[in-house]
Inverse folding.
């Protein structure tokens, strides 16, 4: 149980385009999902907390207009990186919360050329 | 002071030995404690959760919690090269979970 999927697993895009990443909880409902970013050899960095039916809460320094989060159902949250630039290239990981415990998706590796 | 602190390592242990990973936290009211394993290039995977003082065992893994001293540890018995990874400690208070920066473990064959 407690399986979280992410799609796509890898994406390469041109600078200036937008990329949408989906995070799904497959066998449980998640009121709360989280979005993290991880640069090579660095620790997880929480970007935002996504709550179903309400606006996401962003961590300090994360631009909410650049990283759009939508949590429209109890099993799906999406992160859209708008007008992506090479510095946005990173490993984006979501997690879904099931009774306090966070279960992570497999991650999405974004490369912006 | 960081909310959740871990030694970044690397911690090197020979195959078959016990690996001991430690984590301290600052908020005395913390209620839930987790250990995750993250292989290079992969996302974190939950290994153990512990909520009350004492030891909790699951196979080769034992989590130990001491709320009075505000530390939580993970012991890995009979360490295998496949245990080589970064281990993340996470501490929860109400709805917020804070992750440490992780300890890199290297098990030497």
């Amino acid at each position: 149980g407690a399986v979280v999927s992410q799609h796509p697993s890898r994406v390469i895009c041109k600078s200036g385009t937008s990329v949408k990443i989906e995070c799904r909880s497959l066998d449980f409902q998640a009121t709360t999902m989280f979005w993290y970013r991880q640069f090579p050899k660095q620790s997880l960095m929480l970007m935002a907390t996504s709550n179903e039916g309400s606006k996401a809460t962003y961590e300090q320094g994360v631009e909410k207009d650049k990283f759009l989060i939508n949590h429209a159902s109890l099993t799906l949250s999406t992160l859209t990186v708008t007008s992506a630039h090479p510095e946005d290239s990173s490993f984006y990981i979501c997690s879904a919360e099931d009774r306090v415990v966070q279960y992570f998706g497999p991650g999405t590796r974004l490369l912006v050329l | 002071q960081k909310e959740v602190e871990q030694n970044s390592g690397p911690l090197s242990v020979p195959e078959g030995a016990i690996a001991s990973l430690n984590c301290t936290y600052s908020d005395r009211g913390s209620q839930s404690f987790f250990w995750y394993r993250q292989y290079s290039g992969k996302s974190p995977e939950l290994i153990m959760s512990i909520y009350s003082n004492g030891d909790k065992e699951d196979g080769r893994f034992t989590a130990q919690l001491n709320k009075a001293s505000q530390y939580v540890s993970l012991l890995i018995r009979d360490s295998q090269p496949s245990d080589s990874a970064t281990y993340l400690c996470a501490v929860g208070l109400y709805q917020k979970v804070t992750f440490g920066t992780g300890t890199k473990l290297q098990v030497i064959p």
